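User: Can you model how iron/sulfur cluster sits in this protein?
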Amino acid sequence: MKQPLLEVKNLQTSFRTEEGLVRAVDGVSFSLRQGEVLGLAGESGCGKSVTAYSISRLLPMPPGQFDGGEILYKGRDILGLKEEEMRRIRGREIAVVFQEPMSALNPVASVSAQIEEALAIHTSLGKAERKERVVHLLARVGIPDPAQRALCYPHELSGGMRQRVMIAMAVSCDPSLLIADEPTTALDVTIQAQILKLIQDMKNETGSAMLLITHDLAVIAETADRAAIMYAGKLVETAAVKNLFAEPAHPYTRGLLNSIPVLGSPGRKLKSIPGRVPNLIDLPGGCAFANRCELAGSRCRNEMPRMVNKDEGHQVRCHLHDGGVK
Ligand code: SF4
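Assistant: Here's the modeled complex, given as structure tokens:
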């Protein structure tokens, strides 16, 4: 079998704060193959964005720090790379679409200048070819009158247009891995579906793999091949999307699924998960979900569940699937 494009092994990322050490990512492992879409989901503060920022090495350090693990990109541990080497990989090989394009784009440079800069760093295209490619890319992401819009500054564009520019910039150098961090969250509901479709189309065109970070399982259902559910810094369930939706094994995954509306089931009652995400500075012993889990038993409060295989390609971290909760 071919080597995965990305292998994250036992990643541990934390933040030093005045209150103490926040273990944002605690022993996360997953892999991603060429062309595959992995959806990483969970409530805000579960560590999914920190995982994305760790892989792209865009985490501010300090206060962030890597405490252990490996991030193998094409077999090479990128945690050991110098920033200069990482800069060459970022943009060319690994590109990121951020949640809020206004803070990711440079407010004092035109759209054209920003995309051209990426092309100048990562490709051998001459100036005229770069300008041509910028217009082509803007047209490709659905920006009307692209030659004119290329001269605009970010504040002159709508939120949806800015996200299209971010996507054009991200795919400008045909990256192998696209990381999209809540790419539609900051947008109007009416254009969320368009942007999601655009990201999918661009991913299919470039043949890249994608790590899609979202709090919205409906987005995962529509977009991803596999899903990984994260809670309090750990993965609690991973499976092919159709298996996860057909047979969710972890009580937290079931809770997330029960809280989203399903088309064609108007009478279905939506149920929110009771309680709150625990404080990552002071996690309880045992299962971090125990204080919100209706099925928790005494073992859950004392012993950390391990990740076990439920079925082929379906893993879950819950005592219910590993000997029981008593
Ligand atoms: Fe619930 Fe126990 Fe499973 Fe944790 S280990 S999810 S508390 S049943």
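A couple of observations from the model: The two ends are 40 Å apart (CA to CA). The pocket of iron/sulfur cluster is lined by residues 250-251, 287, 289-290, 293, 295-296, 300, 305, 318-320, 325 (CB under 6 Å).
User: Helpful, thanks.
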